[in-house]
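Deliverable D4.2, example record:
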Amino acid sequence: MKQLKYAKTIYETINNENNKRNKEIMIKPKKMKSSRKSSDIQPYINTESEPEKTKDYIVEKLDLSYNATEAIFQVNGLGIGLGGDNKYLCWCQISLYIKNRFFHYNQANDDMLLYQDVVYIRDVFNALLNDEITEVYSFSFAEPDLTFNLYPKEDLDLRKDIGFFTKGPHIQDIHAQLVINLSDYKYGINGQTYTFPMNRDEIKLMKKYLDRAITLLDKQWEESR
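Output generated by the structure prediction step:
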């Protein structure tokens, strides 16, 4: 899919600033196999067992469940890199839980996104909501664990591969896909994916959630200095 110039510029600007301020290379730790069963892992962090200071930076879970699919996303504060000197290269603790009749995905407190990635998702979702994205746009993070596909508003009457029996206009609203690139502990990413669809309302919820999360992440960073 064609890269969107606007969104690409945001990410390049962040990276250029990072390179000037920090020459250290942050290496993501290799995932280790857990002895716990997936059913034993909570879909989001259990704040009752966490130190009071950590609780202050945890954003209450974002519930995106619909129909028979449970979906929970949560930012649990900054992790690896918190003691460094570059906030943008600090890993965020992310919990992502999706479960339905056919699929069960559970990652708790995983170093899945950098701080700059969280900011980037928020900014690009905001651009999509404001109709600043005019072409299909995709971007990925980490190994990649996650891929986002963004679809702008589209006039379906202009497409030659779609026909309608009713008079137009036929406008398809903005939407997005969160694609989870599945992996196993022995071989890593295995080429299988799971796609979670997001409509306008869910994109709005995610954008507002990330606004709150970034505010708390900034607070955690400043108070750790």
